Amino acid sequence: MINFEEELKKFHPSLEIEEATDAIYNQDMTDMADLLVSLIKEERAAGQSQE
């Protein structure tokens, strides 16, 4: 019979998964809110330059 406690003690996550996780979490990703803020700033700047 399998002793799950012993098997869990032997478990070590794959380095590839750890590296992928780090790459995903450390990536500076732009979301929709960032895009909207950027568009609003551009529109305001364009509106001020026309005045």
Entry summary:
With 51 residues, this protein is an all-alpha fold.
Q: Distance between termini? A: 80 Å
Classify the beta-strand content into a percent band.
Answer: under 5%
Helix content: over 70%
Radius of gyration: 24 Å
Counting helices, strands and paired strands, the structural category is mainly alpha
Number of strands: 0
The total count of helices amounts to 3
Instruction: Please state the oligomeric state of the protein chains shown.
Output: single chain
Low-confidence stretches: none
Major sheet details: none
SSE succession:
HHH
Q: What is the average of the pLDDT values?
A: 86
Describe the global form. rod-shaped
Count up the domains.
1
Which features does this protein show?
51 residues, mainly alpha
